[in-house]
Amino acid sequence: MRQVVRAGGEVFDVRGEPQGGRGARSRAGPAALADQLTVAFEGVYAAVQASRADWPARRARALAELLIGAHQA
Question: Segment Disordered: which positions (predicted)?
């Protein structure tokens, strides 16, 4: 499974479960999903503002579905 490194060196899988990185702590569940969706959409907003293109917004739904699906697995 794909791993994500967050600020502070914490290592989590895509569902927000700790993978033993420095300072690993449990944040699985709805709170982790909310964090991931927030970061994803902030990135979409920033990309649209920076590039004046609409492709990030067009791909946002697929990204959200991917994150939600990973949490339901």
Answer: 1-28
